[in-house]
Amino acid sequence: MTSYELISSDLAARLGLKRLTLGLLAGSLVVNALLAGALLFKKESVSTVLIPVGFNEVTHPVSVSDSHVDQDYLMLVARDLLSLALNVTPANVDFNREMLLKHVAPDSFGAIDEALKVKAAQIKRLRATTLFEAQSMSVNAHALSVEAHGVKRHFIGKTETQRQKTSITLRFNLVAGKLQLASLSETDEKATKSSASHSL
């Protein structure tokens, strides 16, 4: 075999290896691109299971996903937000407002913040206290709404000045498995003046 033939066969072997390597790289790129596309466009529902703690809470785990929220969890969240909004004194009204606003939907933030600021100014000016006693709650997990019926009591110092039958409606948005308060509205059913004095 001549030198020319040896060089030619060596070049042919190298070209074959080069083509094989390029083919493997191209195949790898195609497979990676397909996997990346599958991951990007795959919609997988993630469900978070929450286990409540406490004797008076629900006794079973509750779940929240991108498209569904457990009815008991919705009730617990609504109850806590009701407490922040309605059980206020001059000492805690600003703290409660800030805590509640952490759960408000961005497009409702301005309106709810303004309403809470007006209420806070009134509470401080009158040095008043309000307490809400929920008597019943209607929860609609599909509509993401809760309606609480109860009595709101107003105090100046230790003297109860007013008692109102009130309905509070909370509406929520569910974004990435997180509940956001969209609206908080109150309807006074009946207001009665109380002359009795109660100790807090």
What does this structure look like?
There is one protein chain. By secondary structure, this protein is of the alpha+beta class. It folds into two domains: 1-42; 47-193, Nuclear Transport Factor 2, Chain: A. Helix content is 41%, strand content 33%. The protein is built from four helices and six strands; from the N terminus they run H-E-E-H-H-H-E-E-E-E. The chain has helices at residues 3-41, 71-86, 93-101, 109-126, and strands spanning 47-50, 62-65, 128-140, 145-156, 159-175, 178-193. The protein has a four-stranded antiparallel β-sheet, with helices on one face. The protein has a two-stranded antiparallel sheet with strand order 1-2. A hairpin with a 2-residue loop joins strand 5 and strand 6. Helix 3 packs antiparallel against helix 4 (109-126). The longest helix has 39 residues, at 3-41. It is elongated and about 115 Å long. This is Type IV conjugative transfer system protein TraE. Keywords: Membrane, Transmembrane, Transmembrane helix. It comes from Candidatus Aphodousia faecigallinarum. The chain crosses the membrane at residues 20-41.
